[in-house]
Write a structure and sequence with these properties.
This protein is α/β, with parallel strands linked by helices and about 425 residues long. Helices cover about 45% and strands about 15% of the residues.
């Protein structure tokens, strides 16, 4: 293997992979392709699902690509999911929880899935010298931690843990798997401290982080089309259209934002969730003739064009392991406003690359938006510093170097050195 890792196949594992575009799929795709470009023999094991509904649903949309194929130098192995087994996990968990049986949590882990058909057989056939996997709370992370310990193969878990989301991540199974794995890759120092608090030695934890491809993002954005009817600045929320991502805070702040900046256009864009319809109705109700656009399930090109044409990007999430949208906004030198929840303060430096508010504080959000819209120089200063940090720390080659260090450290840990 390239670098200072042992020669042999390197396997990446993720619950979804291209053409899926969620955070884990994007992370593992770029890392795998970067390692392949560096000369490693790289394989990816993933599912045929486009999103978690495919882990436990018969009629979920599936990836219509070959089960095994080469993509940009990476050998991709797509495994079918035993969706019926995961679907059974929920009622089993409910019964076991009521009866206070010790297997209740494990049944919940199986429900989260994915249970991949032929997973261990594929691993054993490939015979990897190391494995790099993401993300918790999904089932394959637990399988890999146990497999690596049993086979004495170093496994690095890129957990992307959201400590504030207790239902998904406050699980003893996650703690056990972190302790069993040879290495842990954290998105931020905040996550590293949390994992260390679970008992994982600090020497086995590497802050790897996440990245973007600035050149690809700016290329896909192209030249934004002329917008003759737009009179004022654009305020953009981009993310899952949900309360969890703080969209309710944005909606509550809208009247105060428009009272100070009546010509501002507010664009709310992102992926549809169960919360979306109620939030859309609330946003329309408070808009009262002001410029509001609601754009669900936009393409990557549309997202890039929106980011490039915005004055400020809002993402006041209540639980976050990183927040890729911050990097995407900074690619275009656009300042951001986030919340001081979870890992966000490790990504957004308050007053340096953006502004932070307390989670759920709509008045503070309105004040922060007003502050930036009223001060173009401040917007440029924050956006320029964010852009500098993207190019310095968060390109995929930079992230891949840190991931390689995590694998090297895990290999040495397995050797007892």
């Amino acid at each position: 293997m390239a670098g200072d890792l042992a020669d042999g196949p390197l396997v990446f594992v993720a619950q979804t992979y291209f053409p899926a575009v969620d955070g884990t799929a994007t992370l593992i795709r770029h890392l795998a392709e970067q390692f392949a470009a560096d000369g490693d023999d790289v394989h990816v094991i993933t599912t045929d699902a486009l999103d978690p509904s495919g882990f436990r649903g018969r009629n979920a949309q599936r990836v219509k690509r070959p089960r095994a194929e080469e993509l940009r130098g990476v050998q991709v192995h797509r495994l079918a999911t035993r969706w019926w087994l995961s679907a059974l996990g929920r009622p089993v968990q409910a019964v076991a929880s009521r009866a206070r049986l010790p297997g209740a949590e494990r049944a919940g882990d199986v429900f989260l899935g994915p249970v991949m058909r032929g997973f261990h057989e594929t691993l054993n056939h490939l015979g990897p010298t190391a494995v790099y996997a993401s993300a918790f709370p999904f089932w394959h992370m637990h399988q890999l931690a146990a497999w690596g310990e049993r086979r004495q193969v170093p496994v690095v878990l890129h957990g992307a843990v959201h400590p504030d989301d207790r239902w998904a991540f406050d699980r003893s199974s996650i703690r056990r798997s972190c302790l069993r794995a040879a290495g842990y890759a954290a998105n931020t120092a905040y996550e590293a401290r949390y994992v260390e608090g679970l008992g994982v030695p600090r020497s086995r934890i590497t802050v790897v982080g996440a990245g973007v491809d600035p050149d690809a993002l700016t290329a896909v954005a192209g030249t934004p089309p002329a917008e003759p009817h737009r009179r004022g600045p654009r305020v953009l929320f981009f993310g899952h259209l949900s309360v969890r991502k703080g969209l309710d805070t944005v909606v509550e702040a809208l009247p105060a934002i428009w009272s100070r900046h009546p010509t501002a256009e507010v664009v709310i864009a992102g992926k549809t969730t169960d919360d979306a319809d109620a939030l859309r109705r609330a946003a329309v109700e408070v808009s009262r003739g002001h410029a509001l656009r609601w754009l669900a399930d936009v393409t990557e090109a549309e997202k890039a064009a929106l980011l490039a044409s915005s004055s400020v990007v809002l993402y006041p999430s209540r639980a976050e392991s990183f927040g890729i949208v911050f990097l995407e906004a900074w690619t275009f030198a656009v300042p951001v406003i986030g919340s001081s929840a979870g890992a966000v303060p490790d990504v957004v430096e308050d007053g340096v690359t953006g502004l932070l508010i307390a989670p759920g504080d709509s008045a503070a959000l309105a004040d922060s938006v007003s502050r930036l819209l009223a001060d173009p120089a401040e917007r440029r200063r924050l956006g320029d510093e964010g852009q500098r940090r993207v190019h310095e720390r968060h390109t995929w080659p930079a992230v891949a170097l840190r991931a390689r260090q995590a694998l090297t450290t895990a290999g040495r840990s397995g050797d007892g050195t």
